[in-house]
Amino acid sequence: MLRTLDSLGDLAGTRVVVRCDLNVPLKDGEITDDGRVRASVPTLDRLLGAGASVTVLSHLGRPDGAPNPRYSLEPVAKRLGELLDREVEFVPGTAGEAEPGSGAVTVLENLRFDPRETSKDAGERREYAEALARHGSAFVSDGFGVVHRKQASVYELAQVLPSAAGLLIADELSVLERLTERPEKPYAVVLGGSKVSDKLGVIDHLLPRVDALLIGGGMLFTFLAAKGFAVGRSLLEQDQIPRVQEYLQRAESLGVTLLVPTDVVVAAAFAADADHETVAADAIESSAFGADGIGLDIGPDTAEAFAGVIARSRTVFWNGPMGVFEFPAFASGTKRVAEALTEVDGLSVVGGGDSAAAVRSLGFGDDRFGHISTGGGASLEFLEGKDLPGLQVLGWERDA
Asked: Is the peptide bond before 186 cis (omega within 30 degrees of 0)?
């Protein structure tokens, strides 16, 4: 059974090390999406309210095991202070060598400035975890976005100190168990993003469990190719065509509605200002751009068809944008799917990563969805049926 905060007992007067996931996007030193920072606040508030002081750990980006000011957590610490409405002490340098903080809330510098955090050597990770353990007498793991990784601050630190899951991890786990073990029907899954190969495990595991599977994003063109359609210069994983054809056959035999777009938005180039037009999915190379056309979004008919399936569902999980939402001309499909999820009479889950970034950038508030996951990769691996080391070390076991 997952160990929760209550298992740590009375924390008044103690210092607790908290592993958050504050890996937020930065542009010119400014946070462009603070969703993960906001998601960390409830656990920190709970600990502070119990009379504990906290030392916050996190990574940011991939600095390759060496200090790099581009990946400093200093602006994140500042934002955390604003959200907590209290002073936050930021400790620069390398987390494993830093002296313990003295304030109620301390944020240590990026964990990945030390190569031991992500080392493949368990002994090196253990050594780093023991150095981090100097910052508290108990450990709370609340960075759901990293629980699928066996890293020092996720796995070994939970063995070195008395440990428990924070409120965010407990909430994420509750939602994901509803999606896999007891989904209310009808159950629809919407998958997008670039590559089919990134979603193979999810499709395999969920196909027998869902009523409808809707395919968008760059991966849709491999599905179209599997049906024999030419896709121009659109993203295509040729080697995955046989696997996709198998999925199409399995869905039919299982009675699962597998919707592949009937129309797509095709452009002359991968650019925000590229000329574009909407064509039938089987006529991509008949567009004005011929065989040079590149598909960048699902078409309006497909978007409405997807919205209709979503509206009739009681449980919906969505991972991956429908098109290149960063370009306004190719954001319509993603926006329509997001709108449909806000109207679900039941549980609607946005599966983290690019999907979470998309709904926020398109102006949708988090409170309009049943749940927005903070861990795209972790959510997908859970839905694939994989065991997640960062949860197992906290006492969680997947039901047989």
From this structure: yes
Walk across the sheet containing 53-57 and list its strands. Answer: 89-91, 105-108, 53-57, 15-19, 138-141, 163-165
Question: Over the stretch 4-36, which tens digit does the pLDDT of each residue have?
Answer: 999 999 999 999 999 999 999 998 889 998 999
The whole-angstrom separation of Cα 336 and Cα 356 is 15
Active site residues: 36, 195, 353, 377
Q: Which tens digit of pLDDT belongs to each residue from 257-303?
A: 999 999 999 999 999 999 999 999 999 999 999 999 999 999 999 99
CA distance 36 to 26: 13
CA distance 161 to 351: 31
DSSP 288: T
Tens digit of pLDDT for each residue in 59-88? 999 999 999 999 999 999 999 999 999 999
Query: For residues 379 and 388, what is the distance between their CA atoms, to the nearest angstrom?
Result: 10
| Distance from C-alpha of 32 to C-alpha of 23, rounded to nearest angstrom | 11
Terminal-residue alpha carbon distance, the chain: 14
Q: State mean pLDDT over 197-224.
A: 94
Q: Both tokens of residue 192?
A: 């997008």
Read off the tokens for 256: 């699962």
Helices within the chain (DSSP H only): 35-49, 74-84, 122-132, 157-160, 167-180, 200-206, 220-226, 241-254, 300-311, 332-342, 353-361, 376-383, 389-392
Query: pLDDT value at position 181?
Result: 86
Nearest to 368 by CA among 331, 396, 341: 341
Q: How far is it, in rounded angstroms, from Cα 127 to Cα 140?
A: 19
119 sits in the region (left: phi over 0; alpha: psi -120 to 50; else beta) called beta
